[in-house]
Amino acid sequence: MSGDLPAPLVNADSAPYWEGARDNKLLLQRCSDCGTLRFFPRYLCTACGSENTDWIEAAGRGTVHSFTVVHRAAFPEFQERTPYVVALIDLEEGPRMMTNIVGADALEVAIGDAVMVEFEDRGGDGAKVPQFRRA
Amino acid sequence: MSLRNKIIVAGVGESDIGKVPGMTGVGLNAQACKRALDDAGLTLKDVDGVLTAYTMTEPYFMLGTVVAEYLGIQPRYCASVAVGGGSPAVMLKHAAEAVLAGHCDTVLVCAGENRATGQSRDSAVAALTIVGHPYFENPYGPLIPGFYAMIARRYMHEFGTTREQMAAVAVNGRNHALRHPNAHMTKSITAEDVLNSKPIAEPLNILDCCLISDAAGAFVVTRADRAPDLANDPAYLLGIGEFHTHEHLIAAPSLTEFGCKQSGEAAYAMAGLGPRDVDFAQLYDCFTIVPIIEMEELGLAERGEGGERFLRGETAIEGSLPINTDGGLLSHAQAGAGGGIFGIVEATRQLRGDQGDRQVKKHDVALVHNEGGILSSNCTMLLGREAR
Question: Most buried of the four, A83, A119, B158, B200, by CB within 10 Å?
Fold first, then answer.
């Protein structure tokens, strides 16, 4: 997985998240009123409905909730990278997100493994996506 | 509003199924509609409502009115419903509510596409990436089988479901499809075939995944008091419920508990029935793990025991709880939103009791479950041979 994959799509909801990724930071939205963390970023707090939001930097640590090893990619640009791991991880702060498990031992991943964030170049203009490797 | 005993499925039809290169997707829907109306003893002139889903193979917007226009009718109730594979059952519910509210009398519901020949296999697979979250899932190269694979992995981890049990789901469907005159798949398979088939997204192999078919299905919804005028016995709607928990897997509340529990409870409550009253079931089986989960969530098996019931053969046509008697999405047909419609078609036929060597022995109450997305949108119905 590397820079020749396309840059992630950025929209108004997610722009701060992707700006943070460019600086090797994993940012999470936090409701300014009730404090609930949420992933993925969106306009309203799903807990209290507040429109007031700030962002915190996550520690970048999590555990694997589930995963799959993909052999048949849906996107042509991913096909030559098979087999690769797609996983759902639970961040230490609570929210769940999707990632690849990267690194030499990625295919040995198991549910419950501790993982650590790193950032992968995408698209060649400084854009990055958070990725996780076994800690 | 209770719909119990007030609404019937008056007729059902399915298009030619498999690879049907001489027909368009909308044409397949029209063929299924014609057959459903013939089955009911009705004509297009009787139809004043149309519901359909969406298409990924043909460049149409507003598919509800596209279908009505193609059929040459001008309904007073018409819409496109897009809750993925959950659409057919949800359309039945919405059609029933519209009829009972007096918005229309006779709703024609159809769904399906020319997915096998209307596009290349690569574009069929690529088109389905729109099910993934474009901003927070797709950068990681997931795919629909991958989403379900993560559910399967977690389910196996928590409840001990095995690959052998999942293979038994595929074999169960195939055995039933072999008895169906219009099923896409016509060759038998063994559990070893499933376990040794090409890996797609571990733990799912290609034979754990549903088909890509040219296929459409249709049914007619009307008031129960019109039953005496019909050409064939109708299926009575006893209970129905829907529940929607998320669209994308990253937002799913759980990887082991889904909205089928709530949709099922609503259907049972409306019908005044419980899981023990179900004689046979048509469950959504886009991947082999899914009917196992649905069985357990719908109370048809204890938690962790659904797979074992498939493995023991209890889900065969001769078994204690026949499941997916037409072969399901794994072996009968899958064409976009059309997949789940065949469960409604098959349940109606089985309730009539005239399906020959595919006929289940006890056929008073059928359960049909459709789900769309990644177990995101769920709809469960109970259909009866008679009002009860």
Answer: B200
* Distance between CA atoms of residues A32 and A54, nearest Å: 6
CATH no., domain B7-119+213-229 = 3.40.47.10
Cβ–Cβ below 8 Å for B126 and A75: yes
Report the CATH fold assignment for B141-211+239-384: Peroxisomal Thiolase; Chain A, domain 1 (3.40.47)
pLDDT tens profile A74-118: 878 898 899 999 999 999 999 999 999 999 999 999 999 999 999
Enumerate residues 6+ apart whose C-beta is below 8 A from B212. Answer: B115, B116, B121, B124, B334, B335
**pLDDT (tens digit, 9 = 90+) per residue, B303-315?**
999 999 999 999 9
**pLDDT tens digit string along B125-151?**
777 777 899 999 999 999 999 999 999
> Chain B contact for A8, CB < 8 A?
yes
CA-to-CA distance for B43 and B108, rounded, in angstroms? Answer: 10
Amino acid at A129: V
pTM to 2 decimal places = 0.97
Minimal Cβ distance to A65: which of B135, B137, B154: B154
pLDDT in tens, B220-270: 999 999 999 999 999 999 999 999 999 999 999 999 999 999 999 999 999
Provide the shortest C-alpha distance from residue B149 to chain A (in Å): 6
* 3-class state of residue B216 by DSSP: strand
Say if the ipTM goes beyond 0.95.
Answer: yes
Domain range annotation of chain A: 15-134
Whether the link from the prior residue into B203 is cis, omega within 30° of 0, is yes
Q: Match 């943070």 to its residue by tokens.
A: A20
Give the C-alpha separation, A82 to A106, whole Å.
12
